[in-house]
Design goal:
The chain has 10 helices and 34 strands. With 691 residues, the protein is α+β, with helices and mostly antiparallel strands. Strand 20 and strand 21 form a beta hairpin. The longest helix is centred in the N-terminal third of the chain and has 14 residues. Pfam families: PhoX.
Length: 691
């Protein structure tokens, strides 16, 4: 494999990392020290193997016999046939069988985690398209690190961009950029202070810096770099103070009512927006992930314990002056129940009211990605990003309307308000003794098996005995815990269906608790103390909206040169790039999988990056690193436009361990004195193109 040595701008001393995959600072800010706290999922679900005879009996009643149509279909699917021909948001952009790409490159060499540089292959260029603090409205001031204010930040691009899409208009020369802003890093935004008034002022800046941004973009020709349009008609900031409408069966329920909203239908703001997806009808979905960390709330109920709430000061300090974020305050006990959903916005209409879909369940949503099934219904795949939590699927009640007119668009924007919610139950097909936690392949040569989507709701009613539909949708984790044999996963983050084959790719980032008594290894999560993560390939066996699937582990990530067992879909490991902690996934026009990572600095001591993985043909499983982000940054929201020779990524929390006085990264300005530049790290959206 040809390697291109990276160009290094500067080397800076490295800082130790915490027990988890990130620094202690970011563990506190991003997920409220989830990996240092007690396990949220202490449910004792029996393993699926103990249910095998019951499952066979059920299949016999259905007329499937002992072997089962499911296993037969799985065998066909795993020989490489396409199980479905359902429709995706980008259907028709490329064939599934082609491994070649419009982005030819020689894989770069892994970049040391001490290097503060954005690295791309030879023959490519990169540029920050938009940075934290860049103005997006004519009345917004230019970015000034020393003169931040809530008013300015609400009119500027937000902080810690995560999910990203660039949606081109007809003709391809104009469009909109949509980005999530997950959380803030106060330690590299401000100098330390203990003044209460200043802390409150900064708290209001944090509210304005989070949420989402919609920004118009333009370019002179297809394949050329974009530029932002300050004051574009569709430009919009969504913050912690933006009104949202709650939809679905739980909307208006008692558990969603507060003293400020006795209707239980209007919520201010969105929190912890991580990944997301663009729907076939043109809206954008965003997942509210680590929402618990924004509330000071005594864990005095099973639900609060299950979601990881703590009775302590938060990193934003909002609870000190805003009772909305004090879960112990009278009248606000339910405020935290109004976060943890999939939100949907219309990027084309800045006057539209964004919504939160209760029908899709409440948990630490990484994101949601939609595909239209053969029967016309919308199917969304979702992961709960916590160690030992679950994989979910939502199937809409109504069908997608493919027409391009106002009536169809209005109809489609309500598709996710009603439908059935499912949780995944995986079953392996290897002897239990061969799944020993080492990561070594079983005798049949693959970690694989079959599975079921088990209903939590069906036809507008709860499918969980003893729980109402409101209880299921507001306390979805507790509902899923009651499903016999439900599979605890290794932090399933991004979950995306392939645009042409319909196969679903699940990025399981890592789980250092795997192998414990509460989370024993299983064939879908086969490696104990799983620091490097893995990727699962799932094939729906009865159509995209069906309830049975086959699956196999596509990648067991890690450094193939280390002693830890790795697996790359059978491709020779000495010919692949090291990869650790898969987080987000995307596809190019030729059908290749692309994976961005979050956590490699603490596992394989390399900067995080973006990797291409062919899914078909002799190069299936060949992991090749395309780019590397700067020091202490995470690679987020990959957008692959191989037909244009372009790639976009969101660079989140560069220099997360530093301070303003002693920065550990200067990305992307690198000491520039140009107007709007700053001598500090700035989360940014980066575009890469051939040239």
């Amino acid at each position: 494999m040809a390697l291109t040595e990276p160009t290094t701008r500067r080397n800076l001393p490295i800082v130790d990392h915490a027990r988890g995959k990130r620094s202690p600072v970011t563990c506190r800010l991003k997920c409220a020290d989830a990996c240092l706290g007690p396990e949220c999922n202490t449910s004792a679900n029996p393993e699926f193997r103990s249910l095998a005879s019951a499952a066979l009996s059920r299949r016999a009643l259905l007329g499937l016999g002992a072997a089962g149509a499911l296993t037969i279909a799985a065998a066909d699917a795993f020989r490489g046939t396409s199980a479905t021909a359902a429709t995706g948001a980008t259907l028709g952009r490329g064939g599934a069988g082609a491994a070649a790409s419009g982005l030819p490159f020689d894989a770069i060499a892994p970049v040391s985690s001490s290097v503060d540089e954005f690295t791309v292959p030879a023959g490519y260029r990169w540029q920050a398209l938009i940075r934290w603090g860049d103005p997006i409205f004519p009345d917004a001031p230019g970015f000034d690190l020393a003169a931040q204010s809530p008013e300015a930040q609400a009119r500027q691009f937000g902080y810690n961009n995560d999910y990203l899409d660039v949606i081109a208009d007809a003709g391809g020369l104009t469009g909109v950029l949509v980005a999530n802003h997950e959380y803030v890093n106060p330690n590299i935004m401000f100098e330390p202070t203990t003044d209460p008034a200043e802390l409150q002022r900064r708290g209001e800046i944090y509210k304005a810096a989070q949420g989402m941004s919609v920004v118009e973009v333009r370019r002179p020709a297809v394949g050329q770099p974009w530029e932002i349009v300050v004051g574009g008609r569709r430009n919009r900031r969504i913050t912690v103070e933006t009104p949202f409408e709650l939809t679905g069966p739980a909307a208006g329920g008692a558990s969603l009512k507060t003293v400020e909203d006795p209707t239980g239908r209007v919520v201010l703001g969105t929190l912890g927006n991580c990944a997301g997806g663009t729907t076939p009808w043109g809206t954008v979905l965003s997942g509210e992930e680590n929402f618990n960390g924004y509330f000071k709330a005594a864990p005095n109920t099973p639900a609060r314990q299950r979601y990881g709430f703590a009775d302590r000061a938060t990193s934003t300090g909002w609870e000190a002056y805003d009772p909305r974020f004090d879960g112990n305050a009278a009248g606000y006990e339910n405020e935290s129940n109004r976060f943890g959903y999939i939100v949907e916005i219309d990027p084309q209409d800045p006057t539209s009211t964004p919504v939160k879909h209760t029908a899709m369940g409440r948990f630490k949503h990484e994101g949601a990605n939609v595909r239209i099934a053969e029967d016309g219904r919308a199917v969304a795949y979702m992961g709960d990003d916590e160690r030992g939590d679950y994989l979910y699927k939502f199937v809409s009640k109504h069908k997608f309307n493919p027409k391009d007119n106002p009536g169809a668009r209005k109809q489609n924007r309500r598709l996710l308000a009603e439908g059935d919610l499912f949780v995944a139950r995986f079953s392996g097909n290897s002897p239990a003794a061969e799944i020993d936690g080492s990561g070594r392949l079983p005798s049949d040569g693959a970690f694989d098996g079959t599975g079921e989507w088990v209903a939590l709701t069906r036809k507008g009613e709860s499918a969980i005995p003893g729980m109402t539909i409101e209880e299921v949708l507001v306390n979805t984790r507790l509902a899923a815990d009651r499903v016999i044999g439900v599979t605890k996963m290794d932090r399933c983050e991004d979950v995306e269906p392939h645009p042409t084959t319909g196969r679903v790719y699940v990025a399981c980032t890592n789980n250092t608790n795997r192998g414990s008594s509460a989370q024993p290894v299983d064939e879908a999560n086969p490696r104990a103390t799983n620091r490097d993560g893995h990727v699962i390939e799932l094939t729906e066996l009865r159509g995209q909206s069906g309830e049975e699937f086959g699956w196999k582990v596509l990648l067991l990530c890690g450094d193939p040169a280390s002693s830890t067992p790795t697996y790359f879909a059978g491709f020779p490991k000495e010919q692949v790039s090291p990869i650790s902690c898969p987080d987000n996934v995307a596809f190019d026009a030729e059908g290749n999988l692309w994976i961005s990572t979050d956590g490699a600095p603490s596992t394989i001591q390399k900067n995080d990056g973006l990797f291409k993985v062919p899914l078909e043909g002799p190069e299936r499983g060949r992991v090749q690193q395309f780019l590397s982000v700067p020091r202490q940054a995470e690679t987020c929201g990959p957008v692959i436009r191989s037909e244009e020779g372009m790639v976009f990524v969101a660079v989140q929390h560069p220099g997360e361990d530093g301070s303003l006085a002693a920065p550990t990264s200067l990305f992307p300005d690198f000491g520039s004195t140009a107007p709007g530049a700053a001598r500090a790290p700035r989360p940014s959206v980066v575009q890469v193109w051939r040239g």
